[in-house]
Amino acid sequence: MEGCELKFTDDALNAIARKALDKGTGARGLRSIIEQVMLDIMYDLPSQPKGSKIVITDDIVNGNRKRYEVPDSKSA
């Protein structure tokens, strides 16, 4: 996928699961939540340099942060 790596932190995965539980949804609910989180990434990904690492955190899932992080390749 555009030569980039996508990572969800453990806290992000827990936040996604909590949202699905709060909504009382199953697998389709999980999919919907992930799609919502990934919306910006789907549009921005083609412009990212090849080899970028995109990190999704719980702050992003919970809406406390609007953007995902692309760490400096030297620190990744």
Describe the structure in brief.
With 76 residues, the protein is mainly alpha-helical. The chain has three helices and two strands.
Low-confidence stretches: none
Rg, Å, rounded: 13 Å
For the biggest sheet, the summary is:
2 strands, parallel
Share of helix among residues? Answer: 40-55%
Overall pLDDT confidence: 81
Written overview of the protein:
- By secondary structure, the chain is mainly alpha-helical.
- Helix content is 47%, strand content 11%.
- It contains 3 helices and 2 strands, in the order βααβα.
- It has helices at 10-23, 27-44, 58-61; strands spanning 5-8, 53-56.
- It has a two-stranded parallel sheet with strand order 1-2.
- Helix 1 packs across helix 2.
- The longest helix has 18 residues, at 27-44.
- It starts with a strand and ends in a 15-residue tail after the last helix.
Question: What is this structure's SSE topology?
Answer:
Blueprint lengths: L4 E4 L1 H14 L3 H18 L8 E4 L1 H4 L15
Parallel strand pairs: 1-2
